[in-house]
Amino acid sequence: MTSGISESPIVGLGKLLIDHRLQVPRHQRDYSWNEDRIKQLFDDIDEAIERKDQFYFIGLMVFLQTESGTPLTVLDGQQRLATAVIFFSAVRNWLRQYQEYQQDAAYIQEWFVGRAKLGTREPTSRLVLNAANNPFFTEHVITAVPIEETKAALSKLKRFDRNRRLLEATVYCHDRVARIVSESPDAATASRRLFQIVSFMEESVSAVRLVVQSEGAAYTIFETLNDRGQDLSPLDLVKNYMFGKADQLSPTTLRDLDARWAQMMATLPSVRPDAFLKAFWTSRNGRIQTPNLFDALKKEYREPPKLIDLSIDMLGASEQYVAIDTPEDVAWSSYSPATRQTIQNFKTIGSQQIHPIILAGLARFKGRELERLIRLLEVLLVRFQLIGGGRTGRLEISCARLAHLIFQQKVTDASAAFRELSDIYPEDDEFRDAFSKKDETSNQKIQYILKRLEEEERRLAHGSMSKELEPGSSLTVEHILPQHPGSAWDSVIRADPEVVEDCADRLGNLCLLTKVNRELGRAGFDTKKETYAKSALLITQKVTNYGTWGRAFIEKRQAHLAKLAVSAWRFQ
After folding, report:
1. What is the pTM of this model?
2. What are the extents of the domains in the chain?
3. Among positive and negative, which fits the CA dihedral 167, 170, 171, 172?
């Protein structure tokens, strides 16, 4: 058929699982539905059953089948299909607890989850997920394991692990089944309710099954879906665009492309893939708005050879992108401890706008020049954004321009980069003035600022022989004038009733302590000075130079800290 579409009947979700073997491509995105999406689906199904609706329509599903008799490749629909299988497996697990429902559990297993071949015990899944998800899907969904094992496995996963959403969905579906059971007076009533939901999902929860004969035809459909506002991310579209050229690639080239994509997705479990894609494009081509990203990429990479080059470049850049937020990454192993500390500091300051510059720098700068570039970016973020409160959009424009110039090798060292950023780099007087008025409520940012000022105070006092702060030393933020003053502060507040509201969070009113002293918080200034005098931190010790404490002294101390800040955050 010239359209590349072989059939498009309406089919029940369960019937689809019964009639076909289904597999998600290795390069397809991970299972990603959160609890809200799953809850909405099953709430809608419950309401449809209660209304006695004949059908509940869940949209279009797109499959690829190039040869008769082969499994259907799921191009769009894996989230809905996987969620259904997870729910069916939860029902199966509950039924298996009762002798009288063993046969029903076996039916659900065979029809909707996975059937064992003759002479084997391990079930073959009705649905195979991508390379990252399928081992967990097999172990915790297809196989009937106690939900406690799944919860234990979930507790060991990192926040952005590629299987976290899958196991969270498994736990949610088991909890939903348990809630249905708890609302029933007995097991017989509970089983009838569960059978009703399963039967409705088999025949009445319906989708349009669209089977295409080539990935090129599927890509055309995806473009149409995207134009109509469907939830396809830029990275999904890039993937589908790349593999839409499959007909023009040799089998070996296609396998290599598939392997690179799978490796890239395995590299990006702890970051947002679409944020990576935008940073990658910006570093190579300049600033772009996310909605325009896919069209621009498609225009730039029309021919298969360029797409192959793109996949190679993206894989390398994905490894570098992960390193941006990971000072322990091997990418920084040859750089100085100060540079690795700056990479750690970026996580506190906030650094999304500079990611394209770091990607371009990793590609074009080496050794000392990359270290100087990293230092420049830290100084810029502090002066322009953290202290200066500069607009994010303006920062993004300047950073995108610089990243592109670095990648084009029109900016070849950190000094040239500094000149390119001169329009947003606050001069010393501007920075000092902004710092002298700054207040801050984030403990992490306060600690970052005051630790850096302490290092500068030590450098000025002792030069190159100054003793550094111990790495990882435990520090706490102390409000000299308490946020909730005790009676010892009554005279200060009577003289200046607004002083707490105006000054408690000013940087001049904040210091660091190396030990937690909970009794100190509301104590009077004279009592606090006794503790400050014993501190190993110079800027904390110097608070004892003031005889009393109030608005004027907070402003005076903050002016001193502002002078320190100018030299602490200066690019040379």
Report:
1. 0.69
2. 5-217, 233-324, 330-426, 441-568
3. positive
